Amino acid sequence: MKEWVKKSISLNVEDDINYMKDLLKDNSDIVFRQFDVYQWKAAFVYIDGMADKILLDNFVLEPLMERNVEIEKVEDIKEKILAVSDIREVEDLSKGIDAMLSGDTLMLIDGLETAYVVATRFWPARSVSEPSGETVIRGAREGFTETIRFNTVLVRRRIRDTRFKVVPKELGTRSKTDVAIMYIDDIVNQEVLDELNKRIGEIDIDAVLDSGYVEQMIEDDNFSPFPQIQSTERPDVVAAALYEGRVAVLVDNSPFAIIAPATLPNLLQSPDDYYQRWMHSSLVRLIRTLAIILSITLPALYVAVTSFHTAIIPTELAYSIAGSREGVPFPAFIEALIMDVSLALLLEAIARLPKPIAATIGIVGGLIIGQAAVSAGIVSPIMIIIVGVTAITEFITPNYGVSSALRLIRFIIIIASAVIGLYGIMLVLLVVLIHLIRLKSFGIPYLAPIVNPDIKDFKDMYVRLPFKFFKERPKYMKTKDKIRQK
Q: Where are the transmembrane segments (predicted)?
């Protein structure tokens, strides 16, 4: 998978240029600019559209051409002429070519066994805007972009600490994607950091195009439906995680940061929980917990009760359900399955279509098709109500990965309820609970702090107490600095 590249830099610029032209042939966007600097021949190599030509012309090429400074040796070119602040030397031509392919400019000069890499990265980039997937009522309206340097700046604005570290790495033998590992040195859980570095170091793939690649390659259990690493578009969420001792990873070309370790309580929290008063946030969390329970059990309860346990329904309600199902040709299980699959298809269609069309499809699918299905006698009105409540409660979950996992579990529970009724629901929930108890994220229990309870950690669990109670960082994170408020 490795590409052979000439290692040493020749003292003759022509040799290196001819080699690079042969290596990079059939690329119309690569510019080779050769010129003379005093008595030495020199050359620039850069990619048109990725390098800042104005910086290159005004602060590099123009001073070299004017020759206003007398120099005696070739090494003085960097020290006395080049008017750029970010310039470094490379001894391997392969490293220079990699930098050039990333948007920098490679400068070669006769008589030098090293090449200069001038920082001229300037490609089209999306401006910072509000993340569409994680909106908040009160809070910052900034979201990550596809440019990794913009993203590190957004986080550093929130952590003005000398102990905040941004460690660069490179993934992909062909894509050579820039990756940044971020943590606060005197807070981070060192075991988590070491394990993360180990897993990232073991990645050997030709291309990394998104942070989702890294997330799937470093998670603990690839066969679990639950996400073991948190992904977010919000820099304030990343900063809050770093202050708790966790580690964040940014990947170039991706607007999503990934945070490790992740626990289920973390994934069910929203930034709004901390930006609003504690009583309102606590009430919302309790409602969110109830909504999650309803979203995975409500259709299955309907199937189990109407198919096996009709005796537990009040008489008037039983008559109402029976009357609404009169004329429906399918059993409750098939009816629930049809509507749940239809809901999943509708959500997928809305996510894939352009926004103006998606809004129309949502109205058409939710109202017209649902009403037509009831009028045609395919489903009962109460099933439409149950599916509607299920859809609303599913959307309350802040994390999309958790929502997808709950949707999969809901299908399994519906099937189990159709086979053995309420016992099937309890059996599946018990299996899921056992799986969650055994699941870990970088050595941290997935259900922490529930499985290793510490009374101080419950201040930010089911409810959120006032900030004056947040004197210590979470115990289960095993941070170096355990105090965050005196």
A: 286-308, 328-347, 359-392, 412-437
